Amino acid sequence: MTGDLLIMTVFGSIGIAIFGLFFGLVYKGIDRKIVAHMQKRVGPPIRQPFLDVIKLMNKETVLPENAVGWMYSMAPLVCLASSIILLLYIPMGGLDQVFENGALLGGHGDIILVLYLLIIPSLAMVAGGFASGSPFATVGAQREMVTMMSYEFPLAVVIIAIVWKLSTAGGDVFSLSLIAGNPIWNSVGLLGLIGAFILLLALVIVTPGEVAKIPFDVAEAETEIAHGLLAEYSGRNLALFYLADGVKTFAMASLVIVLFFPYNISPVLEQYVALGDFTILVDFLFFLLKVFLVLLFSVTLVRAGMARLRITQVVSVYWITVTLIALFGLVLLMWDNQFDVGWF
Amino acid sequence: MISKAFKRALWVFHVNSGSCNGCDIEVIAALTPRYDAERFGIKLVGNPRHADVIAFTGAVTSDMAEKVKRIYEQTPDPKVILVVGACGIGGGVFHESYHLEGPIERLIPDATCVYVPGCPPRPEAIIYGVVKAWQFLEGVEKK
After folding, report:
1. Min CA distance, B31 vs chain A (Å)?
2. pLDDT in tens, A323-339
3. Which CATH number fits domain B11-142: 2.60.120.10, 3.30.1360.40, 3.40.50.12280, 3.40.190.10?
4. Which of A67, A128, B137, B143 is the most exposed place for a label (fewest CB within 10 A)?
């Protein structure tokens, strides 16, 4: 029994790693294509990120003279590995019927673990930035730390609010499969509905910060600080960071889906056609569509429509505006439990 | 697949080594919706460490000479220099100036240079120059 679990974990992890890398790059390509179209350009083909990675793999990998060698070379690996580990815990539509607790390691970790795992890729980048011994990378690393501290609080508020709402029902409320099984929209009144919308808004604003995209990409600002954290990275190491960025974006979108849109389409379709063995496939395709929509609204459209904020503005946006929005949503959810406003 | 790795994914770092800004505007024009170099995977990066092609605009002034050499050394192999504009080739209208360190090929003798003549060259010419650069990089891969 233990042997089976071990084999499944090992091969499942490899499978999910390949799957995450592939879709991370695909969504990166789609993102670039849509931004290009919004700017009235033709834009690169959707397979462009794959070509970029292959090219980077063929380039020389420079180790700067005054870098801390082992830390500098470890950081991209840790960054990519922890981004892939995230995918092992987050339930994904379709796949949640394959695995026992929603995800490959679903029964072994909860949302608090995912919250901590989300920090590790950024921490690895900070370590790599400081280790590369370049002033640009050091400034980038400091900025990344400040950004991290800024968006963690509103993100925690959103997650606590959803978990607290579930806790009134009881059970192991931190478990991701329980959160995915009880969508927040199903158990709220009017006030709670407004509160949940506000929390969703806060999470949508946190997402571009979490995955370091415009307007919150201060740590990797190419025009100001020469790519910041990544300033000294080249070749294979840069390719690993490139892949990690794609995987982390995919994982973050999956987390948004687990928290707010964990619905599957198969129960709706079952009323019209018998899906049989195709249930998993249909749900999985629907999940990919949801990831696309989340990334479209929280990353792509924002990226095309906005300029980069200054680091001070990033801090004030997250600490003051988004935190207040998220706390207001939390309060509305609490009022929803206390007062029964009803539906008009 | 690997021999064609550079074909559709060239990253260009743009350095102004003493240009009058005319060529810089044309380099930017190559990225605008009208020409859209990104559809060929050509991307402007902000750092020589990420670049495959270094685009130098302008004649090299004595202030920039050392920096030009350093930027070339900082770029990981394989790499190509793209000299944009007449100034980088022979000094252009500044050819008699006292403060010029001469063309880039004299500063970095072992570099592979692709020249785009013109004052300033048209964006199509710059894109064509980048195409020549990737043909060279593919040749490096085959060896």
Report:
1. 9
2. 999 999 888 888 877 77
3. 3.40.50.12280
4. B143
